[in-house]
Design a protein that fits this description.
Layout (H helix, E strand, L loop, with lengths): L3 E5 L4 E2 L2 E2 L1 H13 L4 E3 L12 H15 L6 E3 L5 H14 L3 E5 L8 H14 L4 E5 L1 H4 L5 H7 L5 E6 L4 H11 L4 E4 L5 H7 L3 E4 L6 H12 L3 H10 L1 H6 L7 H10 L15 H13 L4
Parallel strand pairs: 1-4, 1-10, 5-6, 6-7, 7-8, 8-9
Antiparallel strand pairs: 2-3
Helix pairs in contact: 1-2, 2-3, 3-4, 4-6, 6-7, 9-10, 12-13
């Protein structure tokens, strides 16, 4: 259902508030450069420090600006099942095409708890839902057997797999077949994951290099594996640079250097260290981004 280059878009701030004008400009930058879908209020969108009203405002602004040109997949996950249901309902009412649901963080649910959490949301809200497994940030790893238990639900259509493990992604693909789509959650393994059967990527890198990420996925699905492989290898250095500090600090710093929006982040995130900023700028110059 959702395929190709899907950007996990940043939430730009100005003096502590959401910069709505810059957000609209970033949406246009993505669509102009071939991005296939947009995810507002994911990890990269700093959802954890947006209050409820801001969260829904960002979702609504993106939906309005996109104006049905590409799908909008709203981040609506929470470590409270009830809150995830409420956010998902509101996103559906606002016109989202799907929702992205991170595994509950801090609670450390069991695998059975994960099944019950996601089943409750899928039963409550009739909208296409993407599971999101990122144990490095949540403290819980949703195992392939658990994904296989959830995959038959009609409202669960995909998983963003961000363990960085080709083995785990491959096990999900082997267990679930065509019951659920797999999307890479890590830019640095998008190409090998697609070679295993993934349908694309929910990308951080696409915030600053949307055309390159879109070209990579487009080439792969057109059968031009040589071009896709070349783009994968060519973007590896800048992909890795997006994680020299906690995401989204590097990508926001990069957007700031490009003049696309402020590099402002919210506490407990803080501005990038000067040493890392110099390293990032040097890499960006290699890619002719600045």
């Amino acid at each position: 259902m959702f395929k190709g280059s899907i950007v996990a878009i940043v939430t730009p701030f100005a003096n502590g508030a959401v910069d709505q004008e810059k957000l609209r400009e970033l949406v246009e930058f993505q669509i102009t450069n071939g991005t296939d879908a947009i995810v507002p209020c994911g990890t990269t969108g700093e959802s954890s420090t947006l209050d409820y009203d801001e969260h829904m405002d960002v979702v609504k602004i993106v939906i309005e600006q996109v104006n049905k040109r590409v799908p909008v997949i709203a981040g609506t996950g929470s470590n409270s099942t009830a809150e995830a249901i409420e956010l998902s309902r509101k996103a559906k009412e606002a016109g989202a095409d799907g929702v992205l649901l991170v595994t509950p963080y801090y609670n450390k649910p069991t695998q059975e708890g994960l099944v019950r959490h996601y089943t409750a949301i899928a039963d409550a809200v009739a909208i296409p839902q993407i599971l999101y497994n990122v144990p490095g940030r949540t403290g819980v790893n949703m195992l392939p057997d658990t994904v296989a238990r959830l995959a038959p639900h009609k409202n669960i259509v995909a998983i963003k797999e961000a363990t960085g493990s080709l083995q785990q992604a491959s096990e999900i693909l082997a267990l679930c077949g065509d019951q659920i789509d797999v999307l890479s959650g890590d830019d640095f393994i998008t190409f090998p994951m697609m070679a295993c059967g993934a349908k694309g990527v929910i990308s951080v890198l696409a915030n600053i290099m949307p055309k390159a990420v879109a070209d990579l996925t487009d080439a792969f699905f057109a059968g031009d594996l040589e071009t896709a492989r070349r783009l994968h290898l060519n973007t590896l250095k800048i992909s890795n640079a997006m994680f020299i500090e906690s995401n989204p600090i590097p990508v926001k710093t990069a957007l700031g250097l490009m003049g696309k929006c402020s590099d402002e982040v919210r506490l407990p995130l803080c501005p990038m260290s000067e040493g890392n900023k110099a390293k990032l700028a040097a890499i960006m110059k290699e890619y002719q981004l600045i």
